[in-house]
Write a structure and sequence with these properties.
By secondary structure, this protein is mainly alpha-helical. Helices cover 50% and strands 12% of the residues. It binds fe (ii) ion. The site of fe (ii) ion has 7 residues, from helix 1.
Length: 199
């Protein structure tokens, strides 16, 4: 059985980027609902003793959409909340040699990196996730819909960062202004965590 992971920071810690109210709804209500639903769906089934990654892949293969959607949302939200919560003096991915190399190999400079991530997230149609994954020595930006994620279609690639573009992630603080949310988010990333995911 899966448990709702605690946030790695206080609910007030991300203000003004994200309010305590947003984190209370997003973590305690939305994320928790996916955890509880997943547990109810897998109890007594062949999924029960598998890891989350195994459940995502197996449910995709079996086209079990209910299990896939809830397992995907549990994985995505856990990763997303870990990507947030910038430490003081940690405001630039180029501080980390591993990220500097990946970004330099993929984009013309840090501004190009920020612009392309922002553009992808803003134009990810409907509800979904914008993922950055490491593919060898470079970064790929992949837009997914609903609960989908790179564990399903790119198990060979290494997840680095994800952006929740469901409106429940930003509507309280930004209403429908996704670009404003994404711009603020990219100024609030825990780059130390992202760097720790790179190989
Ligand atoms: Fe979400």
């Amino acid at each position: 059985m899966f448990k709702l992971p605690d946030l790695p920071y206080a609910k007030s810690a991300l203000a003004p980027f994200l309010s305590e109210e947003t984190l209370t709804y997003h973590h305690d209500k939305h994320f928790n609902a996916y955890v509880e639903k997943l547990n109810s769906l897998i109890t007594g089934t062949g999924y029960e003793n598998l890891s989350l990654a195994e459940i995502i892949r197996k449910s995709a293969e079996e086209n079990n959409k209910a299990v896939f959607n809830n397992a995907g949302q549990v994985f995505n939200h856990d990763f997303y909340f870990k990507c947030l919560g910038q430490e003081p003096d940690d405001n630039c991915p180029m501080k980390y040699e591993v990220l500097k190399k990946l970004i330099s190999n993929t984009f013309s400079d840090k501004e190009d990196f920020t612009a392309k991530v922002t553009d992808a997230a803003v134009n990810n149609f409907g509800s979904g996730w914008t993922w950055l994954v490491q593919n060898g020595d470079h970064i790929e930006i992949i837009n997914y819909s609903n609960a989908d994620n790179p564990l399903r279609d790119h198990p060979d690639m290494n997840p680095l960062l994800c952006i929740d573009v469901w409106e429940h992630a930003y509507y309280i603080d930004y209403r429908n202004d996704r670009k404003k949310y994404v711009t603020a988010l990219l100024g609030s990333i825990n780059w130390k965590f992202v760097a720790s995911q790179a190989k």
